[in-house]
TrEMBL record:
Region (Disordered): 114-162
Keyword ATP-binding: no
Any Pfam family the entry gives: SWIM
Gene Ontology molecular-function annotations: zinc ion binding
PROSITE patterns according to UniProt: ZF_SWIM
Name used for this protein in its record: SWIM-type domain-containing protein
Keyword field contains Endoplasmic reticulum: no
Superkingdom to which the source organism belongs: Bacteria
Species classification: Bacteria, Bacillati, Actinomycetota, Actinomycetes, Bifidobacteriales
Species this protein is from: Bifidobacterium myosotis
Keywords, alphabetical: Metal-binding, Zinc, Zinc-finger
Length: 696
């Protein structure tokens, strides 16, 4: 055992043990021992062991053949997996004197409690590794539908209208069939909870007291913060020179060390049959852990740790629900604790544990004996859903000043958080009804909450699978009227963009195709083209492909004569006049339309009013209008202020590239003359002259 520690550290640990500073050693879970050591403060030490057959790659292996049978580690088949302590030295990654003292107490049988559980197997399910790491957290199940088929651009169609396509209808129906299943997928519930609980055997280790649980959690957080913030304030009473060196900082921020105490408490909660006390400890631990996020810089890593802790609360609730001997009153008390904890977090926008703790209630949904408890708990949460969410960092000081824009942004963010919570509640209730087998009630719930994207997707999928596309259109329109326009077009959280590139408009396109409603289909295609710039702020190859398919599909649908005489002029007018104003938005779908129809005059007008458009469209329009197109391309350099002030080399390369593009249309001589005049206009710009050298 002494091999784990420096000689001085081990000697001081042995001194602590002999002086009686180890105030208690208890086995709190399979393979997990907890001890308290009195030093400058009361420190909590956790020792994790496992059998040699379970040795992990990151475990520190020590031969424990000499351990006393009275310590509960009675065979030679044990190794030490990790030692953790809430003192600052241990937080830095070192085995400290407090760990040595507790190990000595275990070896010499300091606690008779351990003899009750000689089996030190590591608990099944999600394991804590060395340094308090946890296996990957759960993730929502999602389908991977195929991409929406697109049509190949064609030449000008015949004068007669073309057949109504069915590509979008078939894609939407295929997605709904694979996504919906028998009764719709579960949005929040994770079946791995059941799998892990089935692998866990029933255990009856003593439950930590609420005071111990709180102290262990707070001490770990505080020790991490002390080590992070005060690493240059050395105090011989707190630090041993041979225990820590400033160069020994671990890679990364080590934020998981702040949650080792919480991990230990939750492992104990999973190893006891005092479920009510275990849940009380778990909620208290999560309250501390949530509040600590305000002080932890690495919020991403910290949030991941919180999610992994919440997973253990979900395991605890599932384990209790599956215990046939548990009293329903105990489950009611546990559910009430979770509801109170979630209620306290409803108004706090940064609570990382809120949704996961609420999801733990779903363990009660499929058990007929306690189904009513889940129903009542979710009803209580739904009752509080409309409470306003406030920022935990909002200042109430009279001296605090906030700009109008900041205040508006803050209000918008809080409203978005409130809407996300209401959507989470819808998902929770729907999962609850499906798990309980109340499918008729689930269907009614979807219709009552059609404004929610997920519920609308459920309701529409039912109608799609029933091949009732009149109903599909009706439900989609009801949802679209209830949400902002941006949600209509960008519904990626509920509708996959690969299958529904235009959000809920795609559903209407599928309905029009199935119902053979040619007029409605034309209207929707025109709407997609005209709204392309407003609804798609970024463009990738897939988005452009969908947009081009829309243009080509409309061209085929209406036929050549109607396309030229009515449809095309109407689209141009609509794209050039938005919201009653004579302005043009950047619209890549419209750009493709202009190019494919060779509308050079409209293209030049568009490029003159949309910054950056000429760079994309120059080659297509310069063939017929070289002078006007080149004038637009080089317009930024027409004045005498183009290269005044700080100018990057990229700007010099850009003007050279633009001039090279003009050579096929304006001729090399014209480009050379322009380059010389531009260089002469800015004689001190050496980098400009160097960039244009090959052109002059």
């Amino acid at each position: 055992m002494s091999q784990l520690f420096g000689s001085r550290v081990f000697e001081r640990g042995e001194s602590y043990w002999r002086d009686g500073r180890v105030e208690g050693v208890t086995q709190i879970a399979p393979g997990i021992f907890h001890g308290e050591v009195r030093g400058g403060s009361l420190y909590d030490v956790t020792i994790r062991v496992h059998g040699r057959g379970d040795v992990q790659s990151d475990a520190t292996v020590v031969d424990l053949a000499s351990l006393s049978p009275s310590a509960g580690l009675s065979t030679a088949d044990w190794t030490i997996q990790s030692c953790s302590c809430t003192c600052p030295s241990a937080v830095s990654g070192h085995y400290c004197k407090h760990c040595a003292a507790v190990l000595l107490a275990i070896v010499h049988g300091a606690s008779d409690e351990q003899a009750h559980h000689p089996d030190g197997a590591v608990p099944s399910g999600r394991e804590m590794g060395a340094g308090g790491t946890v296996s990957d957290s759960s993730s929502a199940l999602s389908a991977s539908p195929a991409r929406m088929p697109t049509m190949t651009p064609t030449t000008m169609p015949t004068d007669d209208p073309g057949p109504i396509p069915h590509d979008t209808y078939q894609t939407v129906r295929s997605y709904c069939s694979s996504w919906y299943g028998d009764h719709g997928p579960l949005l929040v519930w994770d079946p791995r909870v059941i799998d892990e609980c089935e692998a866990m055997r029933r255990m009856s280790f003593p439950c930590l007291s609420l005071q111990q649980a709180g102290r262990m959690t707070e001490s770990a957080v505080q020790s991490y913060l002390d080590f992070r913030d005060d690493d240059d304030e050395w105090d011989d009473d707190r630090w041993d020179d041979d225990e820590f060196d400033e160069s020994d900082w671990p890679d990364g921020d080590g934020v998981t060390a702040a949650f080792t105490g919480a991990n230990d408490v939750l492992d104990n909660a999973l190893a006891t049959d005092d479920y009510e006390a275990a849940m009380r400890n778990a909620v208290a631990v999560m309250n501390i852990a949530d509040k600590s996020l305000e002080y932890l810089d690495s919020s991403g890593d910290a949030d991941e740790c919180i999610e992994q802790l919440v997973w253990k609360i979900r395991l605890l609730m599932e384990k209790a629900t599956r215990d046939a001997d548990i009293d329903a009153a105990v489950l009611k008390a546990m559910a009430d604790m979770l509801v109170d904890a979630v209620h306290d977090r409803i108004q706090v926008s940064w609570s990382a544990s809120r949704d996961g703790m609420a999801a733990a209630l779903l363990s009660l949904s499929s058990n007929p004996r306690v189904r009513h408890i889940a129903d009542q708990a979710l009803s209580n949460l739904e009752h509080d859903a409309d409470l306003p969410i406030i920022s935990p960092f909002a200042s109430t000081s009279a001296d605090s000043t906030v700009t109008d824009s900041t205040a508006v942004d803050s209000v918008a963010e809080l409203e978005e958080e409130s809407q996300q919570w209401r959507s989470t509640l819808c998902a929770l209730r729907h999962d609850d009804l499906v798990l309980a087998g109340e499918f008729d009630r689930a269907e009614r719930y979807e219709l009552e909450h059609i404004e929610d994207g997920a519920m609308a997707t459920f309701a529409v999928s039912r109608a799609v699978l029933a091949d009732d596309f009149g109903r599909v259109r009706e439900l989609a329109m009801r949802h679209m009227r209830a949400v902002p326009e941006t949600s209509v077009w960008r519904a990626s959280e509920t509708l996959p963009e690969t299958t529904f590139p235009y959000g809920w408009i795609t559903v209407l396109v599928a309905s029009a195709q199935r119902l053979a409603d040619r007029a409605e289909l034309e209207h929707l295609y025109r709407r997609i083209i005209a709204h392309g710039g407003k609804t798609i702020p970024w463009y990738d190859d897939a988005t452009l492909e969908d947009g081009r398919a829309c243009v080509d599909g409309l061209r085929k649908l209406v036929g050549g004569r109607q396309w030229r005489e009515r449809t095309l002029p109407a689209i141009i007018e609509e794209c050039e006049t938005r919201d009653g104003e004579n302005r043009i938005c950047e619209n890549r779908i419209y750009e493709y339309l202009l190019q494919s129809e060779h509308l050079d005059e409209q293209t030049l007008e568009y490029c003159s009013r949309v910054p950056g458009a000429i760079d994309r469209l120059y080659d297509s329009v310069a063939a017929s209008q070289p002078v006007r197109a080149t004038a637009l391309l080089l317009e930024p350099y027409a004045g005498d202020r183009a290269f005044v002030g700080t100018v990057s080399r990229a700007e010099y390369r850009k003007v050279a590239d633009r001039l090279r593009r003009a050579i096929p249309f304006m001729g090399a001589a014209w480009v050379a003359a322009y380059a010389r005049s531009l260089s002469a206009k800015y004689p001190r710009r050496v980098n400009l002259k160097a960039a244009l050298k090959g052109l002059m």
